[in-house]
Amino acid sequence: MHGLKLADQKSLMKQPVTVLVGIGTERAAQLERLGILTVEDLLLHRPRRYEDRRKLVRIGEWSQGQTAMIQGTVTAMGVKWYQHHRKSVFELILEDGSGRLRCRWWNMPYLEQIYRAGQTLVVFGKLKDVKPRIVDHPEVEAAEEGDDVSLHVHRIVPIYPLTEGVSQRWLRALIWRSLSRIEGTVEEPFTGYPPPGWMTRAQALFFLHFPDELANADQARQRLALDELMVLQTEFMRRRRNLARNASARSCGGDNRWIRPFLKRLDFALTAAQTRVLREIRQDLAGPVPMRRLLQGDVGSGKTVVAACAILMTLESGLNAVLMAPTEILAEQHHKKFGKWLDPLGLPVGLWTAGRKDSLPASNVASIDRPERPRLVVGTHALFEESFSLDAIGLVIIDEQHKFGVVQRERLVRKGCYPHLLVMTATPIPRTLALTLYGDLDVSVIDEMPAGRGKVRTFLRTEASLEKVWDFVKNKLQEGRQAYVVCPRLEEDGMGDLKALTSEYAELQKRMAPHRVGFVHGQLPADDKVQVMREFSEGRLKVLLATTVVEVGLDVPNATVLVVLNAERYGLAQLHQLRGRIGRGAHEAYCILVGQSRTDAARARLRAFCETTDGFKIAEIDMKLRGPGEMLGQQQSGMPQFRFADLVEDFSLLKEARAIAARLEMK
């Protein structure tokens, strides 16, 4: 059995690569550095590009810098030694009737034993010089037929990511031999799959590495990407199925006795989008299966009011509600806002953070399902602690879901007995990410902004304009407005490149006098953060200097100016979150990005941000520029690792995987 040490071919794909002939301990260690542990890993090792080596070029027509393939006869060869026989260069001369080509390999004298005068060779490489014509370290193939003929020339050839000790030719040949061994043993991952019109998985593995045309390679990539997305979508379907089978929802549809007076007290009317989303949520809360819903809405679209209505429906049904925020500052603000809304209705609102834990009764239930006095508890990660316990939880709301991992979400839900779950985000999520990260959730989108909001204008300025920027800020303070100033760093690092909060604070105090300046950052004690934010909210502080701790949730309508220092250091989604801190009142607002964009791409990115306030457009741009993992944070987001699926480009493929998974689920 050529190329295989085991007779059990059916299990070959899952076997370690050491079952392949020629793969010992050293080779296995090299492949492991490429993430290749099994034969399946080897066959899924994706080429980073392809080279079309099907067309021969005459030596005399080969241009300098051109990558091409030629065929010629060896007319001379030899090794030259340097530095007391420690360095060498092997050269051979090829001729094809149109010119001569010198092929050189440094410190590879053993090649003299491989080639011979009169031999016909096919050479592929990039021409370094034309007088004389020279190519260094080309790929060479004897023109005679061999075991792996046409693997490296005369075809479209895969070019792989490599590591030290592994060459393209060796890896290409290993994959070719392995493909021949698995022929006829590759199983489809799902029954009744693939759909008509798709190549089989075995065909996809072959064409991924050795396509007849580049279109074959793309079709193979799509088939393997579909498999990855199918695994994800079928897992989502499994979760939904298990939830429907195993969980009986507590009815939280409410009776409107508290929602009606709450809505009457508001000084604004709900938008049509908010009303539509509330109908979707009410239907879920009254349904037989626990709600699992994602609520998306751009900054300032009114998600918090919708959340308040969902909470009131739950409390009307005699059950408790829990709301979790990613930071103590945001939790404190939610506690204050919900207290203002719910206190007049006689409904208690508790707070549970690392810095403050409202006392809760040991048991506040008249029965296992109905508390004596339903309440809302607002908190942070501290809600995960064993010390937090609350009976009869009917609804869990997670604000700014992207700040939490999927596992964290499940841990909080398990605190109750299958409560309804609403996760909210003001970070607009591109469609592919929404289906990938939250495919087990229904999605509601508030796609309409409330009336009466001030327009936000965004400007891009350089460091040279900073003096004028501060003059503009001070003028706005004199008009009675307030301002945020955001720094990327807490302290100086000695490099001098990034603005630091500690040094900017003293400078701003001088520039903005007599207006008061405060500061807040992640390392500030919780009580101090709350005090600073209270003073800023009440207008006693006119300028709030901060790190990105103010990124989410803060609502100070009188703050109309945002200055972001070193703006080039932030992703567009984060800049959009920061910009959402202003424009929350009736006055026109100004976002001023101050940056040193050293590249055209960086300048274009920030200019694109200045041209739109549509968070969903910004999210799409951000994902294309930075990729989904960096955009959301790989660990926090629970982003799956894909070899072939591209979440920037594969939205249609993701929708197809979702549809196929649904069809298979129904069979």
Q: How are the SSEs ordered, and which strands pair?
A:
Layout: H1 25-32, H2 39-43, E1 49-52, E2 67-82, E3 87-95, E4 100-106, E5 120-130, E6 133-136, E7 139-142, E8 156-159, H3 168-182, H4 201-209, H5 214-246, H6 259-265, H7 272-285, E9 292-297, H8 303-316, E10 320-324, H9 328-342, E11 349-352, E12 376-379, E13 393-398, H10 406-413, E14 420-425, H11 431-437, E15 442-446, E16 456-461, H12 466-478, E17 482-486, H13 501-512, E18 517-520, H14 526-537, E19 543-546, E20 559-565, H15 572-579, E21 589-594, H16 600-610, H17 615-626, H18 628-632, H19 634-637, H20 651-666
Parallel strand pairs: 4-6, 9-14, 9-15, 10-12, 10-13, 11-12, 13-14, 16-21, 17-19, 17-20, 18-19, 20-21
Antiparallel strand pairs: 1-8, 2-3, 2-5, 3-4, 5-6, 5-7
Provide structural commentary.
The chain is globular. Among the domains are: about 55-155, Nucleic acid-binding proteins (OB fold (Dihydrolipoamide Acetyltransferase, E2P)), CATH 2.40.50; about 260-445, Rossmann fold (3-Layer(aba) Sandwich); about 455-630, Rossmann fold. It is α/β, with parallel strands linked by helices. Mean pLDDT is about 85; it is low at about 1-10 and about 360-370. The protein starts with about 25 loop residues before the first helix and ends with a helix. The strands form four sheets. A seven-stranded parallel beta sheet has the order 11-12-10-13-14-9-15, with helices on both faces. Strands 16-21-20-17-19-18 form a six-stranded parallel beta sheet, sandwiched between helices. It contains 20 helices and 21 strands. The longest helix is centred in the middle third of the chain and has 33 residues, at about 215-245. Helix 4 crosses helix 5 and helix 5 (about 215-245) crosses helix 20. Strand 18, helix 14 and strand 19 form a beta-alpha-beta unit.
